[in-house]
């Protein structure tokens, strides 16, 4: 049994995946955060949730942060200790803002920090690969870990990613509905096969989107066009599809955020947004440059370096 820290706190950002044509690959970190504190304690695992999901999320072994912690302890060949977990959540669940990836990344980083054994410390690429495996795809966990704008892919079964800086004039805005939508259900709406022309269309738009996000935001409206997932999912989220169409008709680059039903719009500079009524919470968020970070621990490190920021994993 390795020596354990007694308490660690991690801060993990919301994320938006796909960004239109970059299905399962492109993602953006948003400056809205969950904060999770883990304390090693005798007895079972006990979870307290405040904020988003309070009274709804599980409070024991089946909580997603705990499941991720168990996966990391397994990877280190260590038993999961008794734990008190406090989750202060600001990321709404099942809305397309990367809540599950944030929970997974939080769990993996908490476990990594709790095990005080430098020789066996999980390296950053292993954390990304494990997080991608738990989530099923790497496009949300990558920006959650690395911050900024990420391109993620799977190679030999392992999630990999590179981080890029988005253009400073880009300001993400999310329109969050009251209704929830599970990623698993949205993925079930996708066809097994797509026309070759649509695949070629998306390849071009996704490549253009990397240029638009990093260097030329004027191209964002064209670069965010998609033919691989949004139309197939529209019948399951008609209000989302309608809002995306309304914003795009007004010249605002708008897409389904992740698997929805939240809508992500890109405002460039002082660009204005049309009034869309009061059924949506409208959050003007910055890009989270740094990604997940350890904000406190028993080792006395008050504010440590962001995890893996700026590196390839
Ligand atoms: N902070 C959390 N704590 C515990 N479980 C969570 C947390 N966030 C998400 N989950 C689990 O993940 C589920 C939502 O995951 P899902 O992938 O469907 O949505 P999302 O991650 O919010 O959206 P997207 O992947 O489209 O960005 C919740 O119903 C819950 O079971
Ligand atoms: N790429 C994923 C993101 C949501 O987890 C999807 O659209 O299903």
UniProtKB/TrEMBL annotation:
<keyword id="KW-0791">Threonine biosynthesis</keyword>
<feature type="domain" description="GHMP kinase N-terminal">
    <location>
        <begin position="64"/>
        <end position="148"/>
    </location>
</feature>
<dbReference type="InterPro" id="IPR006204">
    <property type="entry name" value="GHMP_kinase_N_dom"/>
</dbReference>
<dbReference type="InterPro" id="IPR020568">
    <property type="entry name" value="Ribosomal_Su5_D2-typ_SF"/>
</dbReference>
<keyword id="KW-0418">Kinase</keyword>
<dbReference type="InterPro" id="IPR014721">
    <property type="entry name" value="Ribsml_uS5_D2-typ_fold_subgr"/>
</dbReference>
<keyword id="KW-0547">Nucleotide-binding</keyword>
<dbReference type="GO" id="GO:0005524">
    <property type="term" value="F:ATP binding"/>
</dbReference>
<dbReference type="Pfam" id="PF00288">
    <property type="entry name" value="GHMP_kinases_N"/>
</dbReference>
<comment type="function">
    <text>Catalyzes the ATP-dependent phosphorylation of L-homoserine to L-homoserine phosphate.</text>
</comment>
<comment type="pathway">
    <text>Amino-acid biosynthesis; L-threonine biosynthesis; L-threonine from L-aspartate: step 4/5.</text>
</comment>
<feature type="domain" description="GHMP kinase C-terminal">
    <location>
        <begin position="226"/>
        <end position="267"/>
    </location>
</feature>
<keyword id="KW-0028">Amino-acid biosynthesis</keyword>
<dbReference type="InterPro" id="IPR036554">
    <property type="entry name" value="GHMP_kinase_C_sf"/>
</dbReference>
<keyword id="KW-0963">Cytoplasm</keyword>
<dbReference type="InterPro" id="IPR000870">
    <property type="entry name" value="Homoserine_kinase"/>
</dbReference>
<keyword id="KW-0067">ATP-binding</keyword>
<dbReference type="InterPro" id="IPR013750">
    <property type="entry name" value="GHMP_kinase_C_dom"/>
</dbReference>
<feature type="binding site">
    <location>
        <begin position="92"/>
        <end position="102"/>
    </location>
    <ligand>
        <name>ATP</name>
    </ligand>
</feature>
<dbReference type="GO" id="GO:0004413">
    <property type="term" value="F:homoserine kinase activity"/>
</dbReference>
<comment type="similarity">
    <text>Belongs to the GHMP kinase family. Homoserine kinase subfamily.</text>
</comment>
<dbReference type="GO" id="GO:0005737">
    <property type="term" value="C:cytoplasm"/>
</dbReference>
<dbReference type="GO" id="GO:0009088">
    <property type="term" value="P:threonine biosynthetic process"/>
</dbReference>
<keyword id="KW-0808">Transferase</keyword>
<protein>
    <recommendedName>
        <fullName>Homoserine kinase</fullName>
        <ecNumber>2.7.1.39</ecNumber>
    </recommendedName>
</protein>
<dbReference type="Pfam" id="PF08544">
    <property type="entry name" value="GHMP_kinases_C"/>
</dbReference>
<dbReference type="InterPro" id="IPR006203">
    <property type="entry name" value="GHMP_knse_ATP-bd_CS"/>
</dbReference>
């Amino acid at each position: 049994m390795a020596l354990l820290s007694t308490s660690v706190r991690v801060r993990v950002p919301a994320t938006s995946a796909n960004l239109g044509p970059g299905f399962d690959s492109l993602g953006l970190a948003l400056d809205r955060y969950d904060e999770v504190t883990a304390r090693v304690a005798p007895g079972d695992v006990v979870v307290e949730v405040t904020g988003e999901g309070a009274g709804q999320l599980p409070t024991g072994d089946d909580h997603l942060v705990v499941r991720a912690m168990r996966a990391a302890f397994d990877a280190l060949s260590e038993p999961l200790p008794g734990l008190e977990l406090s989750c202060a959540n600001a990321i709404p669940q099942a809305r397309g803002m990367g809540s599950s990836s944030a929970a997974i990344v939080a769990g993996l980083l908490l476990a990594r920090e709790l095990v005080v054994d430098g020789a066996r410390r999980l390296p950053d690429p292993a954390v990304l690969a494990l997080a991608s495996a738990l989530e099923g795809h790497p496009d949300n966990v990558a920006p959650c870990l690395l911050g900024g704008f990420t391109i993620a892919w799977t190679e030999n079964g392992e999630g990999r990613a590179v981080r890029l800086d988005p253009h400073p004039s880009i300001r993400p805005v999310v329109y969050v509905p009251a209704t929830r939508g599970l990623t698993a259900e949205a993925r079930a709406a996708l066809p097994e096969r797509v026309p070759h022309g649509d695949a070629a269309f998306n390849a071009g738009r996704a490549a253009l989107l990397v240029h638009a996000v990093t260097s030329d935001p004027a191209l964002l409206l064209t670069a965010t066009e998609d033919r691989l997932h949004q139309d197939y999912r529209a019948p399951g989220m008609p209000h989302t599809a309608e809002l995306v169409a309304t914003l795009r008709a007004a010249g605002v680059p708008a897409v389904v955020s992740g698997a929805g039903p939240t809508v992500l719009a890109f405002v460039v500079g002082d660009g204005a947004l049309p009034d869309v009524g009061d059924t949506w919470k409208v959050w003007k968020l910055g890009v989270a440059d740094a990604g997940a970070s350890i904000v406190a621990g028993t080792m006395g490190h008050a504010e440590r370096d962001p995890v893996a920021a700026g590196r390839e994993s």
